[in-house]
Amino acid sequence: MIHPSEFGALRAFVAVAEQLSFSRAAESLGLSPSALSQTVRGLEERLGRRLLNRTTRSVSLTEAGAALLADVGGALTTLADAFNSARAESGEPSGTLRLHCFHAAAELFVAPILHDFTRAYQKVVLDLTIDDTVIDLVAEGYDAAIRIGEVIERDMVAIPLGGDIRQIAVASPVYLAEHGAPTTPKDLLAHRCIRWRWPGQSTPYAWEFHEGGRWFAVSVDGPVISSSRSFTLDAALAGVGIAFLKEGSVAAHLADGRLVALLEDWSAPFPGFCLCYPRQSHMSPALRVLVDALENSLIAGKDAAPKTASRKVAG
Known about the structure:
315 residues, Arc Repressor Mutant, subunit A, D-Maltodextrin-Binding Protein, domain 2
């Protein structure tokens, strides 16, 4: 059986291994770098294995160190979560909650609750990363994410938020006056389209439409490819071409006439955003109250959500 004193040494090692920095790890643990270094060196001596390669400029894991981190890193996190949960039973939620959000998710779900949530739970710190990449939550050290349901891994617990969403083709009146409007999705092949790709990927996203109970994709062409949805919207407003965007993000521009919706008969709703977290993780009190806040703020919208079309894209 492991001696209780070893838990502190393992925690120290994991902090250094995850941050690859003695100074940053020491700061997070409230220790001096020299004390932390001594603790880790003592662990190495007791194990009879070098866990870290140290130079004056960098820290890296040895093969033994990487294996130990894989074995104990998640276990220590689970123990810490369980301890914090037990401690919080008689008190308010606390701690830092690391959340990864798509841009649209942060705007639609997090921003509206931020004021009330931070006032109600003053011991919880929300550490938000906002971008449209699909990352490994466990490897990157996040507690949860808000992302589109179709890109959530199977080993994640997914809690639906905000009902279904719809992608629609839009263009400015200026573009349509010059080029005309497509009447079917296939007509897009003859138009200038503003294409979007997932950050970190080279292939643009194929536009997906729905007809007769089936989904099909159209690989459009055009003068611009971007990984930013806000840039794509700006380009559409400027008359560069036709864009394919979430209906909610263009609603105001449709209402004021700066954009025109196209091909709406082929645009069906599909499952939208979910909050997800690793299935093997213990849900911390801080994450629990965040989920409650999100669900409470969206319950009316969920009741009014349109019927979902099962999304299977034809090859």
